[in-house]
């Protein structure tokens, strides 16, 4: 039933509802991505839990979001409840063993798990503009801001760094417009107001250091099991744009950092993207195109991406075409759009002559799904009506005390708890502004001294009274321009940004 080359998902049924065969996901095709869809309450979370358990036991690290808190139970030993034991018998899962899995809890707000942070530079202008819902003109200003930061060696670590840079750009709007195109103070002001809203929504907790190290979500235990990183997302879902942008950033980081490995016996990491419709909702075409590109190419890095959503229409067609392993739970077909979703889901499967796929989708019971996994040579298997196996871990959430204990015993305990605020754009620009201010004050004092001891009428004779030559600079102006020139460094010029505009680390 279970071997080291596949994950047991459940058992398919014959037309008379008798046992047909075991349905399995071949690990060597685990990085060919996947899709779990179905209406609310049809069993998507359990299917996700079963797959996460299987990958973990196979030594594959897993990252997944816990939208409702139910997925946290994967950290605890399962219990032999009657309906679970009955389902194990129906799918011929013998023996049905209970397990607890190595879980690391994460939380962008640092309340139900270890804090997760990224720097503003790592996020990049494209994703940040998406997060802030900027207009095309404002996105252009954001791109210019990142270009200036890269050229002038200004580290953008947290939101106050970006705010300081934008204020600096507003002061230099004429100079910058001459180099990069029109930069208006109203556009900068609109971005600053949006940043303030973002900060009030809790995003300030996410931007900063220490930033998440990819290696910490790719851990394995001493007994060879993959760690399951669970992101607490119940509070995060109150800001769905932040949730979607964070997961997209993480996927792009994986793409940029991991080496090419080609075809492998099992994935290096599996990434579950729950509520996947949020990624594509109102997303500009350029972002959707780049997501499609990342999904297509990240397979060669050994990463499998599994989208979890209610409706297959939530996923753009180009992305949908990349998802080889599919689990389709029940859909309701009351409205025209729901009927279209059923037809779309049915059309994506390799037909089975034993039943009509579109009709079956509307008749599936809870915990039952249409399953089609990639077979030998990567060919999709004929769709089968399948009873999903029961999980080995706890079905349902863990208690707050259990969560606190697991967080305290985590292998990354203490590494991300305290935010570090090192010198970056905010401090550098503040320091330079003070130096320029001091230089201006000294210049004014010097001018005042000369006027007290000067020869009467000399300024009129020389033609310098009350004005200065147009080609001369004050000490303050010279200091400001010197600052602008000196801030640029080899580090800034060497910055390389990846496919989604995020900073490519270590380059």
Quick summary of this structure?
The chain has 507 residues and is α/β, with parallel strands linked by helices.
Annotation keywords:
12-stranded mixed sheet; elongated; 507 residues; alpha/beta; 12 strands; 18 helices
* Low-pLDDT stretches: 466-494
Total helical elements: 18
**Rg from alpha-carbon coordinates:** 29 Å
Helix content: 40-55%
Biggest beta sheet attributes: 12 strands, mixed
User: SSE order in H/E notation?
Assistant: EEEHEHEEHHHHHEHEHHEHEHHEEHHHHH
Strand-residue proportion: 5-15%
Q: How would you describe the shape?
A: elongated
List the strand order in the largest sheet: 2-1-12-11-10-3-9-8-4-7-5-6
Structural class: alpha/beta
For the record, give the distance between the C-alpha atoms at the N and C termini, rounded to a whole number.
Answer: 46 Å
The count of DSSP E runs of length 2 or more, i.e. the number of strands, is 12
Report the mean per-residue pLDDT as an integer.
87
Question: Mind sketching the topology for me?
Answer:
Blueprint: E1 6-13, E2 19-26, E3 34-37, H1 44-57, E4 62-66, H2 82-90, E5 103-107, E6 114-115, H3 120-132, H4 136-151, H5 159-171, H6 173-180, H7 185-200, E7 228-232, H8 240-257, E8 269-274, H9 277-280, H10 285-298, E9 303-309, H11 317-320, E10 325-328, H12 336-347, H13 357-361, E11 368-372, E12 384-388, H14 400-408, H15 425-453, H16 458-462, H17 475-487, H18 490-493
Parallel strand pairs: 3-9, 3-10, 4-7, 4-8, 5-6, 5-7, 8-9
Antiparallel strand pairs: 1-2, 1-12, 10-11, 11-12
Detailed description of the structure:
With 507 residues, the chain is of the alpha/beta class. It has 18 helices and 12 strands. Strands 2-1-12-11-10-3-9-8-4-7-5-6 form a 12-stranded mixed sheet, with helices on both faces. Strand 1 and strand 2 form a beta hairpin. The longest helix is centred in the C-terminal third of the chain and has 29 residues.
């Amino acid at each position: 039933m279970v071997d080291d080359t596949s994950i047991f998902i459940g058992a398919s049924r014959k037309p008379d509802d008798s046992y047909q065969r075991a349905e399995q996901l071949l690990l060597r095709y685990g990085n060919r991505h996947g899709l779990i869809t179905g209406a609310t309450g049809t069993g998507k979370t359990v299917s996700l839990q079963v797959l996460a358990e299987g990958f973990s036991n196979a030594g594959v690290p897993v990252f997944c979001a816990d939208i409702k808190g139910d997925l946290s139970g994967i950290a605890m030993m399962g219990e032999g409840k009657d309906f679970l034991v009955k389902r194990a018998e129906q799918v011929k899962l013998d023996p049905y063993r209970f397990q607890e899995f190595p879980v690391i809890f994460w939380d962008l707000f640092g309340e139900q798990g270890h804090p997760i942070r990224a720097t503003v530079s790592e996020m990049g202008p494209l994703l940040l503009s998406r997060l802030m819902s900027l207009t095309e003109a404002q996105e252009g200003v954001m791109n210019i801001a990142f270009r200036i930061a890269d050229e002038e060696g200004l580290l953008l670590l947290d939101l106050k760094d970006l705010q300081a840079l934008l204020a600096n750009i507003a002061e230099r709007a004429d100079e910058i417009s001459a180099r990069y195109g029109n930069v208006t103070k109203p556009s900068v002001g609109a971005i600053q107001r949006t940043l303030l809203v973002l900060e009030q929504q809790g995003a300030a907790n996410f931007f900063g250091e220490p930033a998440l190290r990819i290696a910490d979500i790719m851990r394995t235990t001493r007994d060879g099991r993959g760690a399951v990183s669970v992101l607490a997302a119940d509070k995060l879902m109150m800001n769905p744009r932040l949730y979607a942008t964070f997961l997209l950033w993480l996927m792009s980081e994986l793409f940029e950092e991991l080496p090419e490995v080609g075809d492998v016996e099992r994935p290096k990491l599996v990434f579950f993207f729950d509520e996947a419709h949020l990624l594509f909702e109102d997303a500009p075409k350029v972002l959707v195109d780049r997501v499609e590109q990342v999904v297509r190419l990240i397979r060669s890095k050994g990463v499998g991406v599994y989208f979890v959503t209610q409706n297959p229409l939530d996923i753009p067609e180009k992305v949908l075409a990349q998802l080889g392993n599919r689990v389709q739970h029940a859909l309701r077909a009351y409205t025209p759009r729901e009927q279209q979703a059923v037809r779309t889901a049915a059309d994506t499967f390799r037909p089975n002559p034993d039943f009509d796929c579109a009709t079956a989708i509307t008749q599936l019971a809870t915990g039952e799904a249409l399953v089609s996994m990639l077979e030998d040579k990567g060919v999709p298997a004929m769709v089968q009506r399948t009873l999903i196996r029961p999980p080995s871990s706890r079905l349902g959430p863990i208690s707050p005390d259990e969560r606190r204990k697991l967080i305290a015993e985590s292998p990354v305990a203490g590494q991300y708890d305290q935010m570090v605020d090192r010198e970056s754009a905010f401090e550098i620009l503040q320091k330079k502004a003070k130096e320029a201010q001091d230089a201006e004050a000294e210049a004014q004092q010097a001018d005042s001294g000369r006027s007290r001891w000067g020869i009467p009428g000399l300024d009129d004779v020389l033609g310098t009274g009350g004005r200065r030559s147009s080609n001369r600079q004050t000490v303050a102006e010279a200091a400001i321009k010197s600052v602008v020139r000196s801030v640029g460094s080899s580090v800034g010029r060497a910055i390389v940004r990846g496919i989604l505009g995020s900073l490519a680390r270590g380059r």
